[in-house]
């Protein structure tokens, strides 16, 4: 066991720190578009955007350890994200790099790295949520084109996206439902595409329903082979598994909740001195630390060249529980005022906590519900019979 | 960056596993715990010959001089088998002598511990059941070249089998005026009594000290300054207990998983039902997670990292909340047979009862985390 960095790793860490020192926008510039554009420009030049991707497609070619160091250093200073094309960087890009042809790589990868526009993800359907492979969105080939008819749902940022990575069914008579699924890269400006934002319980709208009516997509926009869509998706979702960024996100929220508990007085004492609040804070912190160390155990496996399997569901379950718990804790600490929303005179932090406490489903349900994660662990790791 | 065990450590794990599979099946263990001493001297001696008892003890005194991380793999396996032995007690006592004793004291006691001829333990708790310095009331009074010990220690692991007892004693009125004294169990006025408890594989006892006369040369370090040393021994004890618990919890869950695959109800193995598989998955998540915490804590202890105590308390708090639950879950998921003496899952439930208060329960460790981390 050894948790120290090697000399080369330390050198890379120093390089990242120097970059941050030089380029991090000041606190007052955190939301200034020009400052953020400059940050991304510099990050692009340093190849920190798409840092894990191969150099020949414009990525940084960073080793696993370097990726971890980069994320850790950025998280420590609460740096703005590296790049702005969130889904493009998270899984569209990796899918194109793995399954795309030369033309697709040359066309899309630089635009993702530059943050030229947003991508959205058309996977879930009204009747295909946790059971994604049962999707039905119809796709028929007609000469050099595919014709798509059907509906997607829970498509985050569809209304702000220029492109969608879309899973469709090209074959219905299949032995296994995972077969007959194809992946298409589709421009959102097609007149046959209609986007209807869905208002969430927090009052805002981030995800949408997307309707496809006789949408014609050139065959050259297919990613991977026809019927290979499931593999394309699975390998892309595997990219989502590194939990390091999640841990830092939770750590920040934890710090904020602790601060809130120190500053808020309930019945004459600080909230943090109420034994049950104190216990919940300490337990949440303990679990975040366990997540961090779980992540390091997974990382060790990756460094040894072993693929990560279903064990990543461990941290997904922790994260789901903690997202809910931290929101609940904050609202409870705020007492009666905890229910007040933005715009109320008495709302603590102008309703930010109320909004946070209504925001967890996006994370908790989005990446596979906790019950699905438990099935994965029970069946794939413990070897219990499938449902 | 390597959060894993070395090849040598993995080999050691395989060796220990083989030894336990051959010599300490659960049937054997059930017999051993019914014996007078509650452990098997013959197996203990063989473990000592293999170097496992003295693994972390200094080489010049017959030990192997290895780090605690190496001992961790041994403990995970002994825990998995619920193997009854005074290994943890002896290691804690030896660490006390090694870290806080002088050369002469080390040369006098450590070789006998490393070669297994002597069993040792650490006697801390008393009537107050308080792990704070104030909880130590057993008095130590200077009398010429000797000290006289008077009082009673409770919940002492392996009290009746230990030849050497490292005793925490009070040597002044100041709350932290405490000392560590090494007492041989045949000293006049010392009487150890077994305290029958739920977990038959872990013996607890009380030790009465009726003016036990011990040479002042048996005091470790300077008298009245041992609180930091005792603090360290509590942390170490919590770490060792938690490490053993990792293997035990994994096995409790495994036994239940195996049962759920075999037991047919409503026409299918009960492990197919989410009401059964989800608690097992949740348990897996918690065991893996406190495992990460305790692995890191052992590394931090070996490296002398500042964060070691905090890491231990997090691990022990998490383990104290998880492992007893694994036993309860296991018995419940077994149904009626889980309640029988014959099935093994109940043995793990009882181990959970033993480990929970041992060197601090979750309440204690959460408080300690708060004081170490500055809420």
What this model shows, in words?
The complex is a heterodimer of chains A (387) and B (375). Chain A has 387 residues and is an alpha+beta fold. Chain A folds into 3 domains: 77 residues, no CATH class; 110 residues, Butyryl-CoA Dehydrogenase, subunit A, domain 2, CATH 2.40.110; 140 residues, Butyryl-CoA Dehydrogenase, subunit A, domain 3. In chain A, strand 9 and strand 10 form a beta hairpin. The radius of gyration of chain A is 22 Å and the shape is globular. Chain B is 51% helix and 15% strand. The longest helix of chain B is centred in the middle third of the chain and has 36 residues. Chain B has 3 domains: 108 residues, Acyl-CoA dehydrogenase/oxidase, N-terminal domain (Butyryl-Coa Dehydrogenase, subunit A, domain 1), CATH 1.10.540; 106 residues, Beta Barrel (Butyryl-CoA Dehydrogenase, subunit A, domain 2), CATH 2.40.110.10; 146 residues, Butyryl-CoA Dehydrogenase, subunit A, domain 3 (Up-down Bundle). Chain B is built from 11 helices and 10 strands. Chain B is globular. In chain B, helix 4 crosses helix 7, helix 8 runs antiparallel to helix 9 and helix 9 packs antiparallel against helix 10. At the A-B interface, helix 8, helix 9 and helix 12 of A face helix 7, strand 10, helix 8, helix 9 and helix 11 of B.
Radius of gyration of chain B: 21 Å
Q: What is the percent of helical residues of chain B?
A: 40-55%
In total, the number of strands of chain A is 10
CATH C-level category of the largest domain in chain A: Mainly Alpha
- Report the principal-axis shape of chain B: globular
Oligomeric state, counting identical vs distinct chains:
heterodimer
Name the pair of protein chains with the most residues at their interface, and give those residue counts.
A-B, 51 and 41 residues
Q: How many helices of chain B?
A: 11
The neighbouring-strand order within the major sheet of chain B is: 1-4-5-8
Distance between the termini of chain B: 29 Å
Helix content of chain A: 40-55%
Strand content of chain A: 15-25%
Count of beta strands of chain B: 10
CATH topology of the largest domain in chain A: Butyryl-CoA Dehydrogenase, subunit A, domain 3
Q: For the report, how would you describe the main beta sheet of chain A?
A: 4 strands, mixed
Low-confidence stretches of chain A are none
Spatial ordering of strands, largest sheet of chain A: 1-4-5-8
Structural class of chain B: alpha+beta
């Amino acid at each position: 066991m050894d948790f120290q960095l090697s000399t080369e790793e330390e050198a890379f860490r120093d390089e990242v720190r120097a970059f941050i020192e030089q380029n991090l926008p000041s606190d007052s510039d955190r939301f200034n578009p020009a400052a953020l554009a400059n940050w991304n420009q510099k990050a692009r030049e340093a190849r920190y955007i798409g840092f894990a991707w191969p150099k020949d497609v414009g990525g940084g070619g960073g080793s696993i350890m370097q990726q971890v160091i980069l994320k850790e250093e950025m998280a420590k200073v609460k740096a703005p994200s590296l790049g702005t094309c969130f889904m493009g960087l998270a899984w569209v890009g990796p899918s194109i790099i793995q399954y795309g042809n030369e033309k697709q790589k040359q066309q899309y990868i630089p635009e993702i790295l530059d943050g030229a526009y947003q991508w959205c993800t058309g996977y879930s359907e009204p009747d295909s949520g946790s059971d994604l492979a049962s999707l039905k969105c119809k796709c028929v080939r007609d000469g050099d084109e595919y014709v798509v008819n059907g509906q997607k749902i829970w498509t985050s940022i569809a209304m702000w996206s220029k492109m969608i990575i879309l899973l469709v069914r090209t074959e219905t008579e299949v032995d296994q439902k995972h077969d007959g699924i194809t992946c298409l890269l589709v421009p959102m400006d097609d007149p046959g595409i209609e986007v209807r934002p869905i208002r969430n319980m927090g009052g805002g709208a981030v995800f949408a329903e997307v309707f496809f009516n006789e949408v014609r997509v050139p065959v050259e926009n297919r990613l991977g082979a026809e019927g290979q869509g499931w593999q394309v998706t699975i390998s892309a979702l595997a990219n989502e598994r590194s939990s390091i960024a999640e841990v830092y996100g939770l750590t920040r929220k934890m710090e904020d909740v602790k601060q809130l508990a120190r500053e808020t007085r309930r019945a004459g004492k600080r909230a943090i001195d109420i034994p049950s609040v104190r216990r919940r804070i300490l337990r949440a912190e303990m679990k975040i630390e366990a997540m961090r160390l779980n992540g390091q155990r997974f990382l060790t496996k990756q460094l040894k060249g072993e693929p990560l399997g279903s064990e990543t569901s461990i941290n997904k379950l922790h994260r789901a529980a903690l997202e809910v718990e931290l929101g609940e804790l904050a609202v409870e600490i705020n007492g009666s005022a905890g229910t007040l929303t933005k715009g109320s005179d008495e709302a603590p932090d102008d309703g930010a906590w109320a909004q946070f406490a209504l925001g967890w489903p996006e994370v908790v349900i989005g990446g596979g519900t906790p019950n699905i994660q438990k099935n994965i662990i029970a069946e794939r790791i413990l070897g219990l019979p499938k449902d | 960056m390597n959060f894993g065990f070395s090849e040598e450590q993995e080999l050691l794990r395989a060796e220990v596993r083989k030894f336990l599979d051959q010599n300490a099946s659960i049937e054997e263990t059930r017999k051993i715990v019914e014996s007078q001493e509650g452990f098997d001297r013959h197996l203990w001696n063989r473990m000592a010959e293999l170097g496992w008892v003295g693994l972390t003890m200094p080489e010049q005194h017959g030990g192997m001089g290895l780090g605690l991380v190496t001992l961790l793999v041994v403990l995970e396996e002994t825990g998995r088998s619920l193997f009854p032995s005074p290994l943890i007690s002896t290691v804690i006592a030896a660490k006390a002598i090694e870290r806080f004793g002088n050369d002469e004291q080390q040369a006098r006691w450590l070789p006998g511990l490393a070669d297994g001829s002597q069993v040792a333990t650490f006697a801390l708790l008393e009537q107050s059941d308080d792990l704070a310095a104030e909880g130590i009331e057993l008095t130590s009074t200077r009398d010429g070249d000797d000290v006289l010990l008077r009082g009673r220690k409770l919940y002492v692991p392996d009290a009746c089998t230990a030849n050497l007892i490292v005793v925490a004693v009070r040597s002044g009125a100041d709350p932290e005026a405490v000392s560590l004294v090494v007492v041989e169990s045949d000293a006049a006025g010392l009487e150890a009594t077994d305290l029958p408890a739920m977990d038959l594989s872990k013996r607890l006892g009380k030790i009465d000290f009726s003016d036990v006369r011990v040479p002042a040369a048996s005091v470790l370090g300077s008298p009245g300054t041992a609180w930091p040393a005792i603090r360290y021994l509590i942390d170490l004890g919590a770490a060792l207990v938690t490490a053993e618990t990792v293997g035990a919890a994994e096995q409790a869950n495994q036994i239940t998983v195996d049962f759920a695959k075999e037991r047919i109800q409503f026409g299918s193995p009960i492990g197919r039902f989410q009401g059964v598989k989800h608690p097992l998955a949740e348990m897996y998540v918690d065991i893996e997670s406190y495992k990460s915490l305790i692995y890191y804590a052992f590394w931090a202890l070996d490296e002398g990292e500042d964060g070691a105590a905090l890491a231990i308390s997090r691990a022990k708090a998490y383990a104290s909340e998880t492992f007893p639950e694994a036993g309860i879950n296991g018995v419940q998921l077994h149904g009626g047979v889980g309640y029988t003496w014959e099935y093994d899952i109940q043995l793990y439930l009882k181990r959970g009862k033993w480990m929970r208060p041992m060197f601090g329960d979750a309440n204690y460790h959460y408080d300690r985390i708060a004081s170490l981390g500055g809420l």
